[in-house]
Amino acid sequence: MILLDGKKTSQQVKEEIAAEVKAIRESGGKTPHLAAVIVGNNGASMTYVNHKVKACQMVGFNSSLIHLNEYITEEELLIKIEGLNKNEEIDGFIVQLPLPDHIDEQVILLAIDPIKDVDGFHPTNVGKMALEFPTFIPATPFGILELLKRYSISTDGQHVVVVGRSNIVGKPISVLLSQKADYGNATVTITHSKTRNLTDITKTADIIIMALGVPGFLKGDMVKDGAVIIDVGITRVKDETKKSGFRLSGDVDFETVSVKASHITPVPGGVGPMTIAMLLKNTLLTRTMKRI
Ligand code: NDP
Questions:
Q1: Which residue's CA is minimally distant from atom 26 of ligand 1?
Q2: Is the model's pLDDT at 291 over the cut of 90?
Q3: How far is the CA of 2 from the centre of ligand 1 (A)?
Q4: In what order do the strands lie in the sheet with 228-231?
Q5: Fold that domain 139-272 belongs to in CATH
């Protein structure tokens, strides 16, 4: 079994980005600048955003963290977003999800200028991705593709089963892997909570991508020998032996699945760090992205 080491691989990606930033600076170009907006004090969201800001510093980007009160109105948030859209210093920005219930996420996503939408969540960018135009690919699916690429795991003609159909992971990775492209050309089955006989389906998969957010859901008896397992899930599970009071758990029961898998991502240290590295990559891509 080969561990798909997202920590090591994301480090390589970040070193490559840092070298590009250095070259940009040396040639008198502008230092890339990523901004992150966070509303409220959700612990997991704060952790993710802080990791993103720290990663910016590591590669030599400028970064701004815009931390807003949880009671901010939708109108006030829209004004902040308009400010970021217009701010020429900022190349790209993200609005960390989830947002508080009184704010409509769709309204906020639509307000982000697609040319600065480095999360790739705006409908314009989702449409471009589906039509295979150059665009920002959402960071988690982008990270999965990069991990497969760097470990030379071909997806050509493979049966990929995706568990979960969210807009940020399940849906885009299903589209990307079924495209006529390198690290595409797979036969993709997308599954969700209404799927019947899921085990019958996962057992036929060459590659399984788990993105549902249920700790340890995929068990060894649900996979065939030699399958490649990508675990996107990250759930905080109460654990009093930890200083923080919790541990992070993936959607895969690592103990029973890893003995059957040919390749598997750990949690933590798999898809998570790749997601952050690819957000940086998207920020770099703002330099060449065209408004079409
Ligand atoms: P969502 O929470 O938005 O959706 C979960 C999906 O799983 C839904 O499509 C749901 O089906 C499906 N599902 C739920 N229960 C079952 C079940 N019993 N059988 C089959 N399908 C089921 O998913 P996200 O993509 O936002 O997040 C998934 C996990 O990935 C979470 O743990 C999240 O924290 C993590 N994550 C990790 C990232 C990383 O960087 N590593 C990035 C983003 C997310 P239905 O549509 O029918 O409700």
A1: 166
A2: no
A3: 25
A4: 2-3, 263-264, 228-231, 207-210, 159-163, 187-191
A5: Rossmann fold (3.40.50)
Residue nearest to atom 36 of ligand 1 (CA): 233
Does the pLDDT value for residue 148 go beyond 90? yes
What CATH architecture applies to the domain 25-131? 3-Layer(aba) Sandwich (3.40)
Q: What is the pLDDT of residues 63-85, one digit of tens each?
A: 999 999 999 999 999 999 999 99
Domain boundaries, the chain: 25-131, 139-272
How many A from CA of 210 to the centre of ligand 1? 8
Checking if the pLDDT of 199 tops 90, the result is yes
Which protein residue has the closest C-alpha to ligand 1 atom 42? 140
Alpha helices in the chain (DSSP H): 6-26, 43-59, 74-86, 105-111, 123-130, 139-150, 170-178, 198-202, 254-258, 271-285
Share of the chain above pLDDT 70, in %: 100
Same fold, 25-131 and 139-272: yes
Catalytic center residues:
52, 96, 119
Task: Write out residues with Cβ below 6 Å of ligand 1.
Answer: 140, 163-166, 168-170, 191-195, 198, 211-214, 232-235, 271-272, 275
